[in-house]
Every structure is written in structure tokens, then in C-alpha cells.
Give the backbone structure.
Amino acid sequence: MTLGLDLGRPTVVQGTVSPAAVDVEIIPVQLAAQLTPATVGTLQGDSPAADRNVTPAAPLDTPIKRDSSTLLPFTTLTRCRIDTLNAMGKEMQEHVVGPMPVENFLDEFLPNPEGYDTSDFASRFASASNDEVFNLQSIRKEEESYKPFIDAMGPFAPQLSFVNTSKHPDSKNCSSFTFNVMPDVCVYADGTSHGCDVSKAEVIIEFKWGDAHDAFSKNPRVDIPVVSQTDKGFDTLGQITSYTSAQLGAQYRTHAFSVLIICNRARIIRWDREGAIVTNAFNYFHEPHLADFFHRFSRASPALRGVDTSVTPASDKDAALARTALNLAKLQSPRDPAVEGSDCLVLIIPQSVAKGFPLVGRWTRTCPAYDVLNKKVVMFKDSWRVSKKDVLPEGETYRLLKLHKVRNVATCIAFHDVIHSIPQQNTQTVKFHNAKWACRNGAVTPHILHRLVLNIVGEKLTDFESSRQLVQSVRDALLAHQDAYEIAKILHRDLSVGNIVIYRGKGILIDWDLAKVLTIQGPRQITRTGTWQFMSAHLVKNIKAIHAVEDDLESSLYVVLWTALMYKESHMDIVDRTQFIMQVFDADPLVGSGGSAKANWLVARTPVLLASVLRDLP
């Protein structure tokens, strides 16, 4: 895939195809050439020559969101890696908005073209309904319903292929997951006729043949959640959430649709990185809404279907160059930023990879990218950042760091909030969370797609060559942290193993998307996702604690210790090492507080253990 970045204005690429259908894609983007007025305002009174000894007041902050996305990347506990779909369902429930009237849903998200004559569809559905082609009530087993359903629905969307995937898990894209991705029916637009492939799927359909398994309340009210509060309901919600999470992870999409069928009732769901909007339940035997959904979807543009149309195919020549530079077999790419002093930046990036992580949130993707114009490898990142007035885009934060000459940070050569071609490509869940038909929900954090390009591609901290290099790299990151805090008045707030890289023997502190600009008063984000294993003992123990500079400094200790325990020989045997990691780093990760294990260890055993795990340090 290729990224093209236009400095002058946002570029819209027409007639693009789904990224799953190509090896390489182009992404036009706009680079902010100057600080925005709001950003300039936060810098008034600041000086690049600020006194290093000036200590800013502790910033206001918000409680850390402790959920599986906080824990997953570095946990050693198999049981915590989305150990049950039930847990994923419970985590998702606050982000579900509904029940939206299905007619409103279709008109809002899949509108018919102006002047479109619906009489032919209406006539065909009436005929099918009279012939009872949708009537599956006589079927006693769920698995016997798939073929009759496919046969009945197919004629309303002949451009699509409905494939029974109930016995075919996606082993190509999801082999590393701790759960099977095996929807009952996958809908494709590229002619796929067999098996489950979430990198190509357009719509996922899940069947349940009993009311007890419905993910949503049968008779919802405005004062209660639309999500069923039963264990079986959470199981189903977690199941359909995991399928969509894999689909969105394996493709460059802005949103996706799925269908949940409970015998003769159906609901249509629209998913994005803010959550999900679900329709009211309706009888698809006699009401046309489900057939109408597929009829509209089959004729809709890629943008309406959820394809990120900022990602477009690249030439075979550019793809070949990128494969050689990145040493990859298959490539893809999304659309993004701009470069100082040039008109355009064109990048080619690897294909997106599905992950078994929760669906809602930033969902950061990073990878090396090939800069076609400058013929070099750079680092590309996209994420769904929190879209609030006082929350700076990460690209702007990098600009401030450069302005204040902060040491040991990468240079951001391009960044951009992606401007989509149609409103339906923007996140929608929060927009409707207060609708008059919406049941109680917690979908209140707006997100926007943000992309940036860094000038270096570092090695993972866990690839250190010696314990000396490990410690020196963390020290280098702390120097960056010190400069940012004392000079630029920025607090990083997420020191972790994944946010320090080694470049030419030096530690570089990256991932500033959770950073706090101290001159901006008030909470920076409504919720915040940290990295559980490296949070300070105070933050772990106290769910409402304010994040201060001391917490980041303590995190650096855990970065060294965790990395050494996981990747370095020590005098501790495997049993003691595993027990220590579980008790201190992975303590009680699924509850609101992690207890006092870290605090107790800090008081009792810090010097002894560090000496043990870093035995070869000169």
C-alpha cells in the first residue's frame, strides 16, 4: 500500500478498491505546516531556553481505564488475553448505543441515491415474503438455517457472495488468537466463495437459535442498557465483537457492518472505534429491512460500506521497490501526512494485521514504510486519537518537542487528521449516544483517525544486545522525558517497553499520543489507556490517582526489570521468576485496583532483585 501526502489540501481518491484486494495502496494526506492557533496559545510564555530547574505544577489528569487493552500487550497470563469472550462482551457493553430505529439506521448510514425508485425492490420482497422464502421457523437446528437464509437473501444482492463459514475458522489471519474467528456466514464483494477470510469480508452474520443467547435486551428502555445483562448475552456480544475487531484489524476500514439473527428476528449493527450502534429487533420474515440492507449495501460505494478510501492501489513498480526495501512479501497502506519543504510524501506500508484486541479505542498501528520520493525507510503510525478541543494530536506534540529541542526523540516529518470523503466514514457512535431512542450507555469519547510519519525506524527495546545497552537505552529515554517535562512542559504518561526503541545504539522515547501539555489545564482525556505492567504502584493501587511525573519515573524501573526478567539470564529459577512477574506485574489486572503488591515489593526487595537480574552489567 502507498501513502501519498498532499501539503496543499486534503486529497480524495475516487474509485478506490478494498485494500484487501490489492498488494499495495496509495494514501494522500495533508501535513500541517504551522501550529494551529490553539497550539500557539498553549506556547505563549514558553521559551526554548527555559530553565531546566523549573518544575511545573503537577498536571491534572483522569483515572486510568483499566481493561484488557491496557493489559494485553505485555501480560504473561494466558487467562488475561481475552480469556473469555464473555469478558470482551462485558467490556464492550458501555460502548453500545441503541436501539436505533432500523429505518433511520438505513437512511443514515446506507442512503439510497437521490431519486432512486424502490418500487422494484418492494415488489420483489413482497413476492418473496408471500412465498415464505424467509420463513425458517420450521428449522429446529441453527446449522440447518444457513443455506435457506443464503438462498433467500442472495437474490436481493447478486453483487455479493454469501458464504457458509460456520465450520471454517480464519486460520490465515487469526491463527495466533486465543479464540476462533469462525462466523456463521461471511459476505464478500470480491467473488470469494469458500471459507472465512476477515481480510476480505464485507459483512459478518451470526445466528443464534434461542432468545437466551441474544446479546441485546428484548424489551429495552431508555433507563437501562440495550445490552442483555445475562452471561449468555455477554458471550454473544463478545463473540460478534471479536469477529468485527479481527475484520477491522485485517483491513483498512473506517467502520463495518454485521448482522445478528435470533431465529426470526434480526438486528443490524454498525461498528467503529467509538463503539457500536445497533438497530431495534425486527422480523425479517415479513419486514423488508434486512433484505433492504443487503440491497443497499450491494449498490453502495466503498466509502459507505466502510472502506478507507484514503487507501488506494499503488503501481507494481512501487510495490516491488517497497518489498525489497522492507524485506516483505505482501504490502498494503493507508492515507496520511505531509513533509516540511516538499509538496508530497508517498509511502508504501505492509498489509494490516488482525489482532485479538478489544475493538474500541485508539487501536494504534505502526510499521516501517518505504518513502518512494526520498527512497528511504521511515516509521508510519496511525491511530484513532481522542478528538477533544484541548487534546493535541500526537503530531503537534512532536512539533512542540522539536521546537524545544528535546533530546532523544524522533522527528515527526508528517502528520494529519484524516479528512474523509463522506460524513458516514467518520466515527458515529458518540454522535448518537444521547439520541432520544438511545438506552443508557457510556459511549462519550469521540475519536478521529490520526496518522504520522517519523524519520527513524528503531529496534525493539527487547532486542537489546546487553544489559548495559538496556539500561543505557532507558536512561536515554529518561533524558528525553526530563527535557520534555522541564523545558517543553510535556509529561509523557506512558513509559513502557513498547514506547522505547533503540536507534544507532541510543534509546529513543516514542508514542507521545497520551502525553499531557502541562500548560493546558483540566483533564486531557475522558478515559485513558495506560500499560498495566509498567504503571506505578500508586496508580495501580488507586483507581482515581492523578498521574504525576513521579509515576513515569517509577515506570522506568519496571521497564528495566520486566525486560530483564523476560529476556535476560538471571540467578532466579523459572518458577520464582514466573511467580514474581505474576504477583507484581500482572497482579489482579481485571479489577479496578491492582492491590499493593508493587508497593510492598518496592519497600522490601528492589536492590536485591535488580542485582540478580542484571548480573552481567559492568
In short: Residues 102 and 394 are 37 Å apart (CA to CA).
